[in-house]
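Q: What would this chain look like folded?
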Amino acid sequence: MGLGRRIGDTLRLPTKPGRIVLVVLVVLALAAGAGGAVAVQAPNVLSDLGLTRAARAEKDLPAPVPELTGLRADAPLPSSAGLGSVLDPLASSSALGDFAGVVVDPAAQAGAGSPTAPLWQQSPEEPLVPGSTGKLLTAAATLLTLDPTDRLVTRAVAGAEPGQVVLVGGGDPTLTALPEGRTGTYPEPARLDDLVAAVQKATAGQKVTSVVVDTSAWTGPVLAPGWDPADIPGGNVTPIVPLMLDGGRLDPTLQDGPRTTTPAVDAGEAFAKKLGLSASAVTEGTAPANAKPLGQVYSAPVSSLVEHLMTSSDNVLAETLARDVALSRKADPSFAGASEQVLAALSQSGFDVTGAHMADGSGLSTEDRVPPRLLGAILAAAAAPTGPGEGTEFLRPIVSGLPVAGGDGTLDDRFATGSASAGRGVVRAKTGTLTGVSALAGVVTDVDGRLLVFALMSNGQSPATVRPRLDTMAATLSRCGCR
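A: My prediction, written as C-alpha coordinates:
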Protein backbone atom coordinates (compact mmCIF):
# COMPACT_ATOMS: atom_id res chain seq x y z
CA MET A 1 0.00 0.00 0.00
CA GLY A 2 1.34 3.45 -0.87
CA LEU A 3 2.29 5.97 1.77
CA GLY A 4 -0.68 7.84 3.12
CA ARG A 5 -3.38 5.94 1.30
CA ARG A 6 -6.83 6.06 2.76
CA ILE A 7 -8.10 2.83 4.24
CA GLY A 8 -10.98 1.76 2.05
CA ASP A 9 -12.28 3.95 -0.74
CA THR A 10 -10.29 7.02 -1.61
CA LEU A 11 -12.18 10.18 -0.72
CA ARG A 12 -11.71 13.80 -1.68
CA LEU A 13 -12.75 16.70 0.47
CA PRO A 14 -15.28 19.15 -0.95
CA THR A 15 -14.16 22.72 -1.41
CA LYS A 16 -15.26 25.23 1.20
CA PRO A 17 -16.60 28.36 -0.53
CA GLY A 18 -16.93 31.67 1.18
CA ARG A 19 -13.83 31.50 3.36
CA ILE A 20 -11.24 34.26 3.60
CA VAL A 21 -7.46 34.04 3.62
CA LEU A 22 -6.27 34.61 7.16
CA VAL A 23 -2.84 35.90 6.34
CA VAL A 24 -2.23 36.52 2.70
CA LEU A 25 1.36 35.38 2.99
CA VAL A 26 0.63 32.16 4.78
CA VAL A 27 1.83 31.50 1.67
CA LEU A 28 -0.39 29.58 1.51
CA ALA A 29 2.31 27.61 2.38
CA LEU A 30 1.04 25.09 -0.03
CA ALA A 31 0.62 27.59 -2.73
CA ALA A 32 -1.85 29.70 -4.56
CA GLY A 33 -3.20 29.10 -8.01
CA ALA A 34 -5.08 26.81 -10.28
CA GLY A 35 -3.04 23.73 -10.77
CA GLY A 36 -3.00 20.42 -9.02
CA ALA A 37 0.40 20.06 -7.37
CA VAL A 38 2.48 21.71 -4.75
CA ALA A 39 5.96 23.12 -5.06
CA VAL A 40 7.79 21.72 -8.06
CA GLN A 41 4.82 20.07 -9.69
CA ALA A 42 2.19 22.74 -9.69
CA PRO A 43 1.86 26.49 -9.69
CA ASN A 44 -1.65 26.61 -8.30
CA VAL A 45 -3.31 24.61 -5.53
CA LEU A 46 -5.17 26.95 -3.23
CA SER A 47 -8.55 25.62 -4.28
CA ASP A 48 -7.38 22.03 -4.02
CA LEU A 49 -5.86 22.46 -0.60
CA GLY A 50 -8.43 24.75 0.95
CA LEU A 51 -5.71 26.63 2.82
CA THR A 52 -7.86 29.55 3.86
CA ARG A 53 -9.06 30.61 7.26
CA ALA A 54 -11.49 33.29 8.38
CA ALA A 55 -9.81 36.50 9.46
CA ARG A 56 -10.11 37.60 13.08
CA ALA A 57 -10.91 41.30 13.18
CA GLU A 58 -9.88 41.63 16.80
CA LYS A 59 -6.37 40.36 16.16
CA ASP A 60 -3.53 42.44 14.72
CA LEU A 61 -2.37 40.19 11.92
CA PRO A 62 1.09 40.25 10.37
CA ALA A 63 1.37 42.73 7.52
CA PRO A 64 0.77 41.11 4.12
CA VAL A 65 3.54 40.99 1.57
CA PRO A 66 3.24 43.49 -1.28
CA GLU A 67 2.58 40.80 -3.85
CA LEU A 68 1.31 37.23 -3.71
CA THR A 69 2.11 34.79 -6.44
CA GLY A 70 1.92 31.05 -6.73
CA LEU A 71 4.87 28.88 -5.82
CA ARG A 72 7.35 28.67 -8.64
CA ALA A 73 7.01 25.48 -10.63
CA ASP A 74 10.80 25.35 -10.82
CA ALA A 75 11.54 26.40 -7.24
CA PRO A 76 14.96 24.96 -6.41
CA LEU A 77 15.34 22.38 -3.69
CA PRO A 78 17.52 23.28 -0.71
CA SER A 79 20.58 21.11 -0.31
CA SER A 80 21.33 19.12 2.80
CA ALA A 81 24.61 20.98 3.15
CA GLY A 82 22.89 24.33 2.77
CA LEU A 83 20.28 23.51 5.39
CA GLY A 84 22.94 22.13 7.68
CA SER A 85 24.94 25.34 7.47
CA VAL A 86 22.09 27.35 9.00
CA LEU A 87 20.33 24.75 11.16
CA ASP A 88 23.24 22.83 12.68
CA PRO A 89 24.50 25.75 14.79
CA LEU A 90 20.99 26.33 16.13
CA ALA A 91 20.31 22.63 16.74
CA SER A 92 23.58 22.13 18.61
CA SER A 93 22.66 24.53 21.41
CA SER A 94 22.64 22.87 24.83
CA ALA A 95 19.62 25.04 25.65
CA LEU A 96 17.56 22.67 23.49
CA GLY A 97 18.22 19.72 25.79
CA ASP A 98 17.57 16.42 24.05
CA PHE A 99 16.79 17.63 20.52
CA ALA A 100 15.73 15.82 17.36
CA GLY A 101 14.32 17.09 14.10
CA VAL A 102 13.84 16.74 10.36
CA VAL A 103 13.21 18.92 7.31
CA VAL A 104 11.39 17.18 4.46
CA ASP A 105 10.44 17.98 0.87
CA PRO A 106 6.72 17.11 0.59
CA ALA A 107 6.92 17.00 -3.20
CA ALA A 108 9.15 13.95 -2.84
CA GLN A 109 6.42 12.17 -0.87
CA ALA A 110 3.81 12.09 -3.65
CA GLY A 111 2.56 8.77 -4.94
CA ALA A 112 3.10 5.25 -3.72
CA GLY A 113 6.20 3.93 -2.09
CA SER A 114 8.40 4.83 0.82
CA PRO A 115 9.20 8.47 1.59
CA THR A 116 12.58 9.82 0.55
CA ALA A 117 15.29 10.75 3.03
CA PRO A 118 14.94 14.06 4.87
CA LEU A 119 16.74 17.10 3.48
CA TRP A 120 18.08 17.74 6.98
CA GLN A 121 17.97 15.63 10.09
CA GLN A 122 19.23 15.26 13.61
CA SER A 123 18.39 12.07 15.48
CA PRO A 124 15.29 11.55 13.28
CA GLU A 125 14.50 8.14 14.77
CA GLU A 126 14.75 9.18 18.42
CA PRO A 127 11.37 8.74 20.15
CA LEU A 128 10.67 11.84 22.23
CA VAL A 129 7.68 13.05 24.21
CA PRO A 130 5.71 14.91 21.51
CA GLY A 131 3.28 16.98 23.54
CA SER A 132 0.40 18.09 21.37
CA THR A 133 2.24 17.35 18.13
CA GLY A 134 1.03 13.84 18.94
CA LYS A 135 -2.35 15.07 17.70
CA LEU A 136 -0.94 14.83 14.18
CA LEU A 137 -1.09 11.05 14.52
CA THR A 138 -4.71 11.12 15.65
CA ALA A 139 -5.71 13.60 12.95
CA ALA A 140 -4.10 11.53 10.20
CA ALA A 141 -5.59 8.26 11.47
CA THR A 142 -9.01 9.92 11.64
CA LEU A 143 -8.88 11.10 8.03
CA LEU A 144 -7.44 7.77 6.88
CA THR A 145 -10.21 5.83 8.61
CA LEU A 146 -13.40 7.92 8.65
CA ASP A 147 -15.35 9.61 5.89
CA PRO A 148 -14.61 13.36 6.11
CA THR A 149 -18.35 14.03 5.95
CA ASP A 150 -19.09 11.85 8.99
CA ARG A 151 -20.67 13.62 11.97
CA LEU A 152 -20.75 12.69 15.65
CA VAL A 153 -24.24 12.09 17.02
CA THR A 154 -25.99 12.53 20.37
CA ARG A 155 -29.33 10.71 20.73
CA ALA A 156 -32.34 10.74 22.98
CA VAL A 157 -34.44 7.59 23.28
CA ALA A 158 -37.34 6.42 25.38
CA GLY A 159 -36.40 4.84 28.70
CA ALA A 160 -37.62 1.65 30.32
CA GLU A 161 -40.25 3.49 32.36
CA PRO A 162 -43.06 5.80 31.26
CA GLY A 163 -41.92 9.41 31.13
CA GLN A 164 -38.25 8.45 31.16
CA VAL A 165 -35.84 9.80 28.51
CA VAL A 166 -32.33 8.43 28.02
CA LEU A 167 -29.63 10.81 26.81
CA VAL A 168 -27.18 8.62 24.89
CA GLY A 169 -23.66 9.93 24.43
CA GLY A 170 -22.15 9.21 21.04
CA GLY A 171 -18.84 10.91 21.60
CA ASP A 172 -19.61 14.47 20.50
CA PRO A 173 -17.76 16.88 22.82
CA THR A 174 -19.00 19.86 20.82
CA LEU A 175 -22.61 19.50 22.00
CA THR A 176 -23.58 22.80 23.62
CA ALA A 177 -26.31 24.14 25.86
CA LEU A 178 -25.79 27.61 24.41
CA PRO A 179 -28.80 28.90 22.47
CA GLU A 180 -28.76 29.55 18.73
CA GLY A 181 -26.86 32.73 18.03
CA ARG A 182 -24.33 32.26 20.82
CA THR A 183 -21.01 30.68 19.98
CA GLY A 184 -18.67 28.68 22.14
CA THR A 185 -15.31 27.24 21.18
CA TYR A 186 -16.37 24.65 18.59
CA PRO A 187 -17.41 25.06 14.94
CA GLU A 188 -21.04 24.32 14.03
CA PRO A 189 -21.87 22.60 17.33
CA ALA A 190 -24.87 20.38 17.92
CA ARG A 191 -27.29 22.19 20.23
CA LEU A 192 -29.05 20.74 23.23
CA ASP A 193 -32.03 23.01 22.49
CA ASP A 194 -32.59 21.20 19.19
CA LEU A 195 -32.54 17.83 20.92
CA VAL A 196 -34.98 19.06 23.58
CA ALA A 197 -37.32 20.33 20.86
CA ALA A 198 -37.20 16.95 19.14
CA VAL A 199 -37.96 15.13 22.40
CA GLN A 200 -40.86 17.44 23.19
CA LYS A 201 -42.31 16.85 19.75
CA ALA A 202 -41.88 13.07 20.01
CA THR A 203 -43.41 12.91 23.49
CA ALA A 204 -46.27 15.34 22.90
CA GLY A 205 -49.05 14.59 25.37
CA GLN A 206 -46.77 12.59 27.66
CA LYS A 207 -44.97 14.23 30.57
CA VAL A 208 -41.23 13.67 30.85
CA THR A 209 -40.44 12.79 34.46
CA SER A 210 -36.81 11.63 34.50
CA VAL A 211 -33.57 11.57 32.53
CA VAL A 212 -31.05 8.74 32.33
CA VAL A 213 -27.49 9.48 31.19
CA ASP A 214 -25.94 6.70 29.07
CA THR A 215 -22.15 6.73 28.62
CA SER A 216 -21.78 3.06 27.72
CA ALA A 217 -20.42 3.77 24.23
CA TRP A 218 -16.86 3.92 25.57
CA THR A 219 -14.96 1.73 27.99
CA GLY A 220 -12.03 1.90 30.38
CA PRO A 221 -10.56 4.64 32.56
CA VAL A 222 -11.61 8.25 32.00
CA LEU A 223 -8.08 9.63 32.50
CA ALA A 224 -5.09 8.35 30.56
CA PRO A 225 -1.80 7.07 31.96
CA GLY A 226 0.60 9.98 32.29
CA TRP A 227 -2.12 12.60 32.83
CA ASP A 228 -2.11 14.97 35.77
CA PRO A 229 -5.53 15.32 37.45
CA ALA A 230 -4.65 18.99 37.95
CA ASP A 231 -5.14 19.41 34.21
CA ILE A 232 -8.92 19.32 34.78
CA PRO A 233 -9.15 22.57 36.78
CA GLY A 234 -6.22 23.79 34.70
CA GLY A 235 -8.42 23.74 31.62
CA ASN A 236 -6.57 21.12 29.59
CA VAL A 237 -8.94 18.18 29.80
CA THR A 238 -12.04 16.67 31.39
CA PRO A 239 -12.78 13.02 32.19
CA ILE A 240 -13.11 11.38 28.77
CA VAL A 241 -16.66 10.10 28.42
CA PRO A 242 -18.92 10.06 25.33
CA LEU A 243 -21.35 12.64 26.68
CA MET A 244 -20.47 16.19 27.66
CA LEU A 245 -21.16 19.82 26.86
CA ASP A 246 -18.57 22.10 25.27
CA GLY A 247 -15.70 19.73 25.96
CA GLY A 248 -16.51 19.83 29.66
CA ARG A 249 -15.80 23.55 29.98
CA LEU A 250 -17.40 25.31 32.93
CA ASP A 251 -17.55 28.42 30.74
CA PRO A 252 -18.32 27.27 27.18
CA THR A 253 -16.78 30.40 25.68
CA LEU A 254 -13.30 29.95 27.20
CA GLN A 255 -10.98 27.72 25.19
CA ASP A 256 -8.65 27.08 28.11
CA GLY A 257 -11.04 27.62 31.01
CA PRO A 258 -11.46 25.15 33.90
CA ARG A 259 -13.25 21.87 33.17
CA THR A 260 -15.77 19.84 35.10
CA THR A 261 -15.02 16.54 36.81
CA THR A 262 -18.54 15.25 36.01
CA PRO A 263 -19.15 16.06 32.33
CA ALA A 264 -21.85 13.45 31.62
CA VAL A 265 -23.96 14.23 34.68
CA ASP A 266 -23.62 17.95 33.95
CA ALA A 267 -24.94 17.36 30.43
CA GLY A 268 -27.83 15.32 31.79
CA GLU A 269 -28.74 18.02 34.30
CA ALA A 270 -28.68 20.72 31.62
CA PHE A 271 -30.89 18.53 29.43
CA ALA A 272 -33.28 17.92 32.32
CA LYS A 273 -33.46 21.62 33.14
CA LYS A 274 -34.46 22.44 29.58
CA LEU A 275 -37.21 19.81 29.91
CA GLY A 276 -38.46 21.47 33.09
CA LEU A 277 -36.96 18.94 35.51
CA SER A 278 -34.65 19.32 38.48
CA ALA A 279 -31.16 17.85 38.80
CA SER A 280 -32.56 15.18 41.12
CA ALA A 281 -34.41 13.69 38.15
CA VAL A 282 -31.11 12.66 36.54
CA THR A 283 -29.53 9.23 37.01
CA GLU A 284 -26.88 7.21 35.20
CA GLY A 285 -27.71 4.03 33.31
CA THR A 286 -28.09 2.53 29.85
CA ALA A 287 -30.72 2.75 27.18
CA PRO A 288 -33.02 -0.25 26.68
CA ALA A 289 -32.37 -2.43 23.67
CA ASN A 290 -34.33 -1.27 20.63
CA ALA A 291 -35.43 1.85 22.47
CA LYS A 292 -37.77 4.21 20.64
CA PRO A 293 -35.81 7.12 19.08
CA LEU A 294 -36.92 10.54 20.27
CA GLY A 295 -34.36 12.74 18.55
CA GLN A 296 -30.74 13.21 17.60
CA VAL A 297 -28.32 16.05 16.85
CA TYR A 298 -25.06 16.10 14.93
CA SER A 299 -21.65 17.73 15.13
CA ALA A 300 -19.80 19.48 12.33
CA PRO A 301 -18.22 17.13 9.74
CA VAL A 302 -15.09 15.25 10.72
CA SER A 303 -13.00 17.31 8.29
CA SER A 304 -14.00 20.51 10.13
CA LEU A 305 -13.33 18.90 13.50
CA VAL A 306 -9.81 17.93 12.39
CA GLU A 307 -9.13 21.47 11.24
CA HIS A 308 -10.31 22.79 14.59
CA LEU A 309 -8.20 20.19 16.37
CA MET A 310 -5.09 21.45 14.62
CA THR A 311 -5.82 25.13 15.26
CA SER A 312 -6.96 24.94 18.87
CA SER A 313 -5.08 21.82 20.03
CA ASP A 314 -8.22 20.63 21.82
CA ASN A 315 -7.28 17.59 23.91
CA VAL A 316 -10.83 16.36 24.46
CA LEU A 317 -11.65 16.48 20.76
CA ALA A 318 -8.48 14.51 20.01
CA GLU A 319 -9.48 11.77 22.44
CA THR A 320 -12.94 11.63 20.89
CA LEU A 321 -11.61 11.22 17.36
CA ALA A 322 -9.14 8.56 18.49
CA ARG A 323 -12.02 6.53 19.91
CA ASP A 324 -13.90 6.90 16.64
CA VAL A 325 -10.89 5.41 14.90
CA ALA A 326 -11.01 2.47 17.31
CA LEU A 327 -14.74 1.95 16.81
CA SER A 328 -14.38 2.09 13.03
CA ARG A 329 -11.72 -0.59 13.26
CA LYS A 330 -13.90 -2.79 15.52
CA ALA A 331 -11.64 -2.27 18.53
CA ASP A 332 -12.15 -1.29 22.15
CA PRO A 333 -13.01 2.44 22.46
CA SER A 334 -10.70 3.02 25.41
CA PHE A 335 -7.41 4.85 25.80
CA ALA A 336 -5.49 1.64 25.13
CA GLY A 337 -7.68 0.56 22.23
CA ALA A 338 -7.77 3.98 20.60
CA SER A 339 -4.01 4.52 20.90
CA GLU A 340 -3.31 1.11 19.44
CA GLN A 341 -5.67 1.63 16.51
CA VAL A 342 -4.35 5.08 15.66
CA LEU A 343 -0.91 3.57 15.14
CA ALA A 344 -2.38 0.55 13.35
CA ALA A 345 -4.27 2.78 10.92
CA LEU A 346 -1.12 4.75 10.17
CA SER A 347 0.91 1.59 9.68
CA GLN A 348 -1.73 0.07 7.41
CA SER A 349 -1.59 3.21 5.29
CA GLY A 350 2.14 2.96 4.74
CA PHE A 351 3.58 5.08 7.55
CA ASP A 352 6.51 3.66 9.49
CA VAL A 353 5.43 3.86 13.14
CA THR A 354 8.61 2.29 14.51
CA GLY A 355 9.49 3.90 17.82
CA ALA A 356 6.06 5.44 18.35
CA HIS A 357 4.06 4.73 21.49
CA MET A 358 0.90 6.60 22.43
CA ALA A 359 -0.94 6.30 25.74
CA ASP A 360 -3.64 8.71 24.56
CA GLY A 361 -4.85 10.49 21.44
CA SER A 362 -3.97 14.04 22.40
CA GLY A 363 -0.29 14.02 23.30
CA LEU A 364 -1.07 15.13 26.84
CA SER A 365 0.44 11.99 28.36
CA THR A 366 4.04 12.02 29.52
CA GLU A 367 4.22 8.38 28.41
CA ASP A 368 3.82 9.22 24.71
CA ARG A 369 6.82 8.83 22.42
CA VAL A 370 7.09 9.76 18.74
CA PRO A 371 10.16 10.16 16.49
CA PRO A 372 10.30 13.39 14.46
CA ARG A 373 10.62 11.31 11.33
CA LEU A 374 6.99 10.16 11.74
CA LEU A 375 5.69 13.69 12.34
CA GLY A 376 7.49 14.81 9.20
CA ALA A 377 6.08 11.93 7.16
CA ILE A 378 2.50 12.70 8.20
CA LEU A 379 2.83 16.39 7.35
CA ALA A 380 4.59 15.61 4.08
CA ALA A 381 1.75 13.32 3.04
CA ALA A 382 -0.81 15.98 3.98
CA ALA A 383 1.04 18.62 1.95
CA ALA A 384 2.12 16.42 -0.95
CA PRO A 385 1.35 17.42 -4.53
CA THR A 386 -1.78 16.24 -6.22
CA GLY A 387 -0.60 13.62 -8.64
CA PRO A 388 -1.97 10.93 -10.93
CA GLY A 389 -3.76 8.04 -9.32
CA GLU A 390 -4.52 7.87 -5.63
CA GLY A 391 -3.26 10.90 -3.75
CA THR A 392 -3.46 12.18 -0.22
CA GLU A 393 -5.73 15.20 -0.64
CA PHE A 394 -8.08 13.87 2.02
CA LEU A 395 -5.35 14.67 4.56
CA ARG A 396 -5.45 18.39 3.68
CA PRO A 397 -7.44 19.44 6.80
CA ILE A 398 -4.31 18.71 8.79
CA VAL A 399 -2.46 21.45 6.93
CA SER A 400 -5.34 23.88 6.47
CA GLY A 401 -5.97 23.72 10.22
CA LEU A 402 -2.39 24.45 11.25
CA PRO A 403 -2.07 27.71 13.21
CA VAL A 404 -0.40 30.62 11.45
CA ALA A 405 2.64 32.09 13.17
CA GLY A 406 1.62 35.33 14.82
CA GLY A 407 -1.89 34.97 13.45
CA ASP A 408 -4.16 32.44 15.12
CA GLY A 409 -4.58 29.37 17.28
CA THR A 410 -1.71 28.24 19.45
CA LEU A 411 0.76 30.37 17.47
CA ASP A 412 -1.05 33.68 17.85
CA ASP A 413 1.49 34.95 20.38
CA ARG A 414 4.58 33.23 18.95
CA PHE A 415 7.23 34.43 16.47
CA ALA A 416 6.94 37.92 17.93
CA THR A 417 10.52 39.12 18.38
CA GLY A 418 14.06 38.81 17.10
CA SER A 419 15.00 36.43 14.34
CA ALA A 420 11.81 34.43 14.86
CA SER A 421 9.67 37.35 13.68
CA ALA A 422 10.60 36.54 10.08
CA GLY A 423 8.32 33.53 10.37
CA ARG A 424 5.18 35.56 11.12
CA GLY A 425 2.55 34.79 8.52
CA VAL A 426 4.87 32.34 6.76
CA VAL A 427 5.14 29.42 9.16
CA ARG A 428 2.13 27.19 9.87
CA ALA A 429 2.71 24.63 12.59
CA LYS A 430 1.34 22.40 15.30
CA THR A 431 2.75 23.11 18.72
CA GLY A 432 3.53 20.72 21.56
CA THR A 433 4.17 21.88 25.11
CA LEU A 434 4.39 20.04 28.43
CA THR A 435 6.70 20.48 31.39
CA GLY A 436 10.15 19.94 29.91
CA VAL A 437 8.66 19.28 26.46
CA SER A 438 8.57 21.58 23.43
CA ALA A 439 7.81 20.66 19.83
CA LEU A 440 6.93 22.45 16.60
CA ALA A 441 5.94 20.65 13.41
CA GLY A 442 4.51 22.21 10.28
CA VAL A 443 5.10 23.77 6.87
CA VAL A 444 6.99 26.80 5.62
CA THR A 445 7.88 28.29 2.25
CA ASP A 446 11.49 29.36 1.72
CA VAL A 447 12.70 32.45 -0.13
CA ASP A 448 12.80 30.55 -3.41
CA GLY A 449 9.15 29.54 -3.11
CA ARG A 450 9.82 25.95 -2.14
CA LEU A 451 7.42 24.36 0.34
CA LEU A 452 9.16 22.52 3.17
CA VAL A 453 7.92 20.38 6.05
CA PHE A 454 9.71 20.45 9.39
CA ALA A 455 9.40 18.64 12.72
CA LEU A 456 11.43 19.93 15.67
CA MET A 457 11.31 18.28 19.11
CA SER A 458 13.00 19.03 22.43
CA ASN A 459 12.83 17.24 25.78
CA GLY A 460 14.43 18.11 29.10
CA GLN A 461 14.43 21.90 29.06
CA SER A 462 11.90 24.57 29.96
CA PRO A 463 9.51 25.56 27.16
CA ALA A 464 10.22 29.20 28.02
CA THR A 465 13.79 28.58 26.93
CA VAL A 466 13.17 26.22 24.04
CA ARG A 467 10.14 27.61 22.21
CA PRO A 468 11.84 30.82 21.00
CA ARG A 469 14.68 28.70 19.65
CA LEU A 470 12.33 26.39 17.77
CA ASP A 471 10.54 29.43 16.37
CA THR A 472 13.87 30.80 15.19
CA MET A 473 14.73 27.53 13.45
CA ALA A 474 11.41 27.51 11.59
CA ALA A 475 11.77 31.18 10.69
CA THR A 476 15.30 30.50 9.45
CA LEU A 477 13.87 28.07 6.92
CA SER A 478 11.62 30.84 5.60
CA ARG A 479 14.63 33.11 4.97
CA CYS A 480 16.82 30.45 3.47
CA GLY A 481 17.32 29.22 -0.07
CA CYS A 482 20.01 27.00 1.42
CA ARG A 483 21.49 25.70 -1.79
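The first strand starts at residue 98 and ends at 104.
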